[in-house]
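Quarterly update from the structural biology core.
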Amino acid sequence: MRKWRYEIVLPATHMDERLLENRPLDQTRKELEAHFNESTQDPHPTLKIWISEDKRCEQRMQRLVVEVDAASDHREFFPKFKAVLKERFHQIDIYIASYAIDVV
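Predicted structure, tokenized:
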């Protein structure tokens, strides 16, 4: 069965490593569950490291995953949702990846 997987990477900490409140993450997960009737949250944060203006940056990130049927309305949902997430998490950008998967 062919499905689409959407992976959303959200900050778990501020840039100074202070933990974010769970409320924005919980709200996001609940909205995904309401829209798609499912979501998966990786229970362990990952560490994102990047270079910006010759400065090494790192931030703990949380990953949410949604797997849905390959319907066009799902692809239309995520660009709008990304704008909401950028404001909610006070980010310049939010990483959302999508790709086809075959469920065995």
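DSSP finds two helices and five strands in the chain.
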